[in-house]
Structures are given as C-alpha cells and as structure tokens.
Amino acid sequence: MGGNENGSPFISTSDIFGLAGLPFLIVAALLLSPRIWARVGRTFAPLAMSRSSRQRNSFDQSVRCALHTAGEAQAADIGSPTLEMTGNEIARHLLIMRARSPFDGAIKTKIVGTGHLDAAIAAGRGVVLWDSQFYFANVATKLALARAGYALHHMSSPSHGVSDTKVGRALLNPIWVGSETKNLAERVVVSYKNPRPAMTRLSTCLAAGKIVSVSVREAARKPAMVPFLDRQLSLGPGAVALAYKADAALIPVFTVQERTGEFVTTLEAPIEISPGLDRHAATFAAAGEYAKRLERHVAQAPGQWQGWRQVEHIKTRITDQ
What we know:
The protein has 321 residues and is α/β, with parallel strands linked by helices. The protein has one domain: Glycerol-3-phosphate (1)-acyltransferase. The protein is built from eleven helices and ten strands. The chain has helices at 13-31, 37-48, 53-69, 81-100, 114-123, 137-147, 166-171, 173-181, 196-207, 238-246, 279-300; strands at 109-112, 127-131, 152-156, 186-189, 211-215, 224-228, 231-235, 249-257, 263-267, 312-313. The strands form two sheets. A seven-stranded mixed sheet has the order 1-9-8-2-5-3-4, with helices on both faces. A three-stranded antiparallel sheet has the order 6-7-10, covered by helices on one side. Helix 4 (81-100) packs across helix 8 and helix 9 crosses helix 10 (238-246). It starts with 12 loop residues before the first helix and ends in an 8-residue tail after the last strand.
C-alpha cells in the first residue's frame, strides 16, 4: 500500500470497524477450515459492499466483457466479480489472522516451478521474484517459499497493511506485516523520504546471489502502461529496474487458492530483460511480457485478482506496440 508518512488522518471509519471486528476474525480464522474461507467471505460479502447495485452491475459486466473480448470465455461462469472479490478480501483477512498465529499448519501450500528458481539461484546473479496482485499472495507466497527453504528479502513500504491512518498503522498494520515477516529472511522498508538506503540494500542482496521479492504495484512516478486484455495495465517499474541493474533473473509469481483450499504458488520462467535495450525500453518490454502471462492466470481465477479496478478500460483491444 502506498501513502505518505506525513499528513495522515488520525483514524478512519474502516479502522473502527476493523478493530471492532478483530475478535470475530481471530475466532473464525482459528476455528474454520481454510477450505471454506472464501465461501464464508462470499456469504458476508453483501454486508461489506459499499457500491450501489447499479455500480456493481456495471463493474461486473465490464469484467465479463474484458474476459470475453480477450477470448477467455472459460472465466464467464464467475458469477458476480464484485461478490467474488469482496468475499476473497474477507477470506484474506482470515488467512492473515491464521498465518499470524502459531497454528498456521492448517494452511496448505504448494509450489509449482521451483526448477526456474533453483536454476536462477545457481546462476549466482540473484533473483527478483515479482509477486502478482492476487488476494492471498502477500501471505501465502511467502509462507509457501519459506516452507520450501527459500530465504526472501522483501521490499516493503512503511504503510504496508490495511490502513493509512495513524491509528491503523499502529494497531492494524502490524498484524498484517507480522503474518508476512515471520516467513521472511528480511523485510526491507523503502522510506518515502529517502529510498536509496533500501534500494542499496536490495542491490547488495542480489549481488550476493540472494532472492529479493517485490509485490506488483500499479502506483509509481513513471509507471509502464502496457496492453492487458482489452485495457491497459499500469505497472510500477521497481522490480524490473532492480533486475536490470543487477543482471538478475526476473521471475513472475502467481498465487491463488484452489477449490480444495490449497494455496498454489506458481513460479514461471524468468522474463528476459534484453541487455541491448536502455532501461526505459527494457522496462516496457518486460512489463508487456508480464501482462501477457498475467492474462492467463487472471482468466483462471478472475475473482482473486485485485487489479480489476486499476486497469483502464478502452473500447477496442490494444494491439502490441
């Protein structure tokens, strides 16, 4: 989550509801099986929806249209994307609470594609894992990789969590951050005022052949705008810039929950970053390749992708530039 360390509001309505609901979330997370978290989330989703029915119907139709236009008709049975996304947001909070507790063994994880990561590590130039914006990724990706014995040095922001207010950052965000940090070798916080020390630390990790993880973000001073389905996707260039500078492998990561309740993390083949291109051109090319791969994963689990509200709709499908 982005934000500004100065001028933040003291508290918000969502903070109050979040704090009041904590006891219920904790009990539900510990007593309910992860297999039914998403179903529970969908049950309570109508209570959490803030948009009008007209807005929801328009949004749902827009998502279905994007999938159909791109030839991803297999995702048409999603039902209401708004309902699915809100339900998964609730389920994500249950995952955070369970992962933060000592009883995270009930969370089942699986990794596909470790060969790509092992080969990149063996090359000795470091690895940048580019973790995609799926609801369960922040927690489940780190848990799965830690269980498999991989040490991650994760790039994070000071306001990472569920709130940008002073109260939220003090009381709510530590719960979120704690559910991730317990499965990291290091959390490298990038200061808004001076990001250089953190970026230097991450570059040092890559030079030593270590694994750096970066979450996909749409916000950036100079984002790369690339084709995605029938729209445009805005991608922050941080992960690509790190890999470009260090000549490290850039591996896209996609984590979703399957119907069985298992969280599956897929590591794909590294995205090639051409040394013959300047940084701007290399960033655009890598972002474009990432977006192409993302389409398939979003089509398979459209209700688990957080990025729908950030993509910019256009009337006709964008072709490669």
